[in-house]
Amino acid sequence: MSGTRLVLWDVDLTLVAAGPVGSELYAAAFERVTGLPMRVVAPRAGRLDPDIFRETIEAHGLDPAAHPFSRFAAALSAVYSERSAELRERGRALPGAAEALAALAALPRTVQSVLTGNVRAVAVVKLAAFGLDRHLDFWIGAYGADAAPRSRLVPLAQRRAGAKHRCTFDAASTVLIGDSRHDVAAGREGGARVVAVATGRDSEADLREAGAHAVLPDLTGTAALLRAVTG
To answer: What are the φ and ψ backbone dihedral angles of 205, each rounded to 5 degrees?
Structure first.
């Protein structure tokens, strides 16, 4: 479909905040696959789940080859599914997230998905827990286990979306929305325009310095978001 726009959303600290329960679920999955309590976790913000898990395994003196990420991904997905009610009670959708998704869904020739370091099943549970899944096509998105580095997820999502919608998505027709310098770098290197929101650990100044094409304080200004997305 000529003229179609692809919007790719980051998940954590852009649309949702799992809070402490996110760390607890990660630790539960880690113990499920290793038999050991998790003492420390590698930095997670803006990073891919396979990289986080590998570094966390190494920090515990374990051999990554003996603990394949696929097993951990299955365990993490199961834990999130089992405890989704707890996630809903203790986590939250970020202010303006639902309204932003609905406003973009109302734009003509606009499709929305996710580009995230999470595995697909976890991303679905996180967003569904807060009713943020209804406007997102998860099958055309790109996820942490799909490719590395993060910038390679952008063309992957473009190809998936292009195959479904019978068009070509490029930097002019793809917008990535995220909260971190990692998101900005992934978008710029991967071939997308980047709208950054300062709802995570990076400030508006950090995001501008990283090269975001537009920077917003949060998602509560729906009109400002629409202007940033449509250019």
So the answer is: -65, -40
Which residues lie closer than 8 Å to 86 by C-beta, 6 or more apart? 21
Which DSSP symbol is given to 152? G
Largest separation between any pair of C-alpha atoms in the chain: 52
- Output the CA–CA distances (angstroms, integers) from residue 103 to 8, 40, 76, 97, 143, in the order listed: 14, 40, 32, 10, 24
Query: Is residue 139 within 8 Å of 120, Cβ to Cβ?
Result: no
Give the span between the Cα atoms of 197 and 210, in whole angstroms: 12
pLDDT (tens digit, 9 = 90+) per residue, 93-140?
999 999 999 999 999 999 999 999 999 999 999 999 999 999 999 999
Domain 5-17+92-230 superfamily per CATH: HAD superfamily/HAD-like (3.40.50.1000)
> What's the CA gap between 223 and 201, in Å, rounded?
24
Q: In what order do the strands lie in the sheet with 193-197?
A: 110-114, 5-9, 174-178, 193-197, 214-216
| pLDDT tens by residue, 166-175 | 999 999 999 9
As a whole number of angstroms, the distance between CA 92 and CA 68 comes to 31
Decide: 194 and 212 in contact? Cβ < 8 Å: yes
- The model carries a pTM of 0.95
In whole angstroms, give the CA distance from residue 182 to residue 190.
Answer: 12
Tokens of residue 21, six digits: 């329960």
β-strand partners of 9:
114, 177
